[in-house]
Design brief:
Keywords: Signal. InterPro entries: Peripla_BP_I, SBP_2_dom. Belongs to the bacterial solute-binding protein 2 family. This protein has 349 residues and is an alpha/beta fold. The protein folds into 2 domains: 165 residues, Response regulator (Rossmann fold, 3-Layer(aba) Sandwich), CATH 3.40.50; 135 residues, Response regulator (Rossmann fold, 3-Layer(aba) Sandwich), CATH 3.40.50. The protein is built from 12 helices and 12 strands. The strands form 2 sheets. The chain has a 6-stranded parallel sheet, with helices on both faces. A 6-stranded mixed sheet has the order 7-6-8-9-10-12, sandwiched between helices. Helix 3 runs parallel beside helix 4 and helix 5 runs parallel beside helix 6. The longest helix has 21 residues.
Length: 349
């Protein structure tokens, strides 16, 4: 068995080396074999399955292109994230992907990278710079799809608990959708608001939600538009014996989320999601196009899908692999494409 594994590893290494020696077919410089491309992925958030799948998708796309991908990240340490950009600049990378972060701490480091001639793209952080394409889930639609499922389930009338942390761009956009929904549907009433990104997310948010459940017993729905926050709500409901009383609506999806949704008596009613691995791949393709001098739109939006508990149960889905098999439209995102950029042949990214 060990011999077989070594042979497979050697073949994989040979394949990557061959790509680098020959370059990508019909690719512009420097992807035509003139040099080895080195990209830095600078991350603010590393906790949670979404973030792990995003990184896996980015790595898979880099591997397909024979690119060296160096990943920097320290969970929710904004100053460390800024410092990582300067480390990447000093390493002489060819391009930088900035994954999440705070606008106020990332604008200057990103600008300094551009000044050194290093292209930058950003995922889920607004860097206030027209030279930096912004990659994002369609967060307004993510929020709206999840809330529309709530509206349907409650016939437009629900007493809602809300988990929200301001200052995080995707959550701010989902909050804008919630604000609009409350105006459009006066029967959707927000009764309480909590939220923290203190680690571990689920445990810390569960503690806050449990306090709300004691003070606001009339709540019958919860909107937690990030799955790690939703897990906190689920945990609070389980510990408070209230899983039959309140339904939960969220954004994002993972194997753990699916398992929680399909469990008997689960309060997790629906989630709107994109494929995080596909977004990671899009991020790598986008920075490669920038390095090659090709045009990109200022905003690259990733369209979401709504998954209800009923849909997932009826499809017999228990993990992300099965989800991708049963819902193939979820797999591939045709953004930042080019004829010379290879994509995953399995259609997963």
């Amino acid at each position: 068995m060990r011999k077989i594994i070594l042979i497979i590893a050697a073949l994989a290494l040979l394949t990557t080396s061959t790509v680098m020696a020959a370059g990508l077919k019909d690719a512009p410089a420097p992807f035509n074999g003139t040099k080895k491309i080195h990209i830095a992925l600078i991350r603010q958030m590393v906790e949670g399955e979404f973030m792990q799948m995003y990184r896996a998708g980015a790595q898979r796309q880099a591997d397909l292109m024979g690119i060296k991908l160096t990943v920097f990240g320290k969970n929710m340490d904004n100053q460390a994230q800024a410092n990582f950009i300067y480390q990447a600049i000093n390493m002489g990378v060819d391009g930088i992907i900035i994954d999440h972060g705070l606008t106020e701490t990332m604008v200057k480091p990103a600008k300094d990278a551009l000044a050194k001639g290093i292209p930058v793209v950003a995922f889920d952080v607004d860097l206030k710079n027209p030279e930096i394409p912004q990659i994002a889930q369609d967060d307004h639609m993510l929020g709206r799809l999840s809330l529309e499922a709530m509206i349907k389930d409650f016939d437009g009338k629900a007493n809602v608990g809300y988990v929200y942390v301001p200052g995080i761009l995707p959550l701010d956009k989902r909050d804008e959708s919630f604000t609009k929904i409350k105006k459009e549907y006066p029967g959707i009433k927000e009764l309480a608001r909590t939220g923290t990104l203190e680690s571990p997310f689920s445990v810390k948010n569960a503690d806050q939600v449990k306090a709300i459940l004691r003070s606001k017993p009339e709540i019958n729905a919860y909107f937690a538009p990030y799955d790690e926050l939703a897990k906190g709500v689920i945990l609070a409901l389980q510990e408070s014996n209230m899983t039959k009383k309140i339904r939960v609506y969220s954004a994002d999806i993972s194997t753990q989320d699916i398992q929680l949704m399909v469990r008997e008596g689960s309060p997790w009613a629906a989630t709107a999601a994109t494929n995080p691995a596909a977004i990671g791949a899009v991020s790598v393709r986008a920075i490669c196009k920038k390095i090659a001098g090709e045009q990109l739109p200022a905003d690259i939006l990733i369209p979401p899908m709504l998954f209800t508990q009923e849909m997932i149960r009826e499809a017999g889905v228990k993990n992300m692999k099965q989800l991708r098999a049963k819902f193939p439209q979820f797999n591939h995102v045709e953004r930042a494409m080019a004829p010379w950029i290879p994509v995953d042949k399995k259609g997963l990214f």
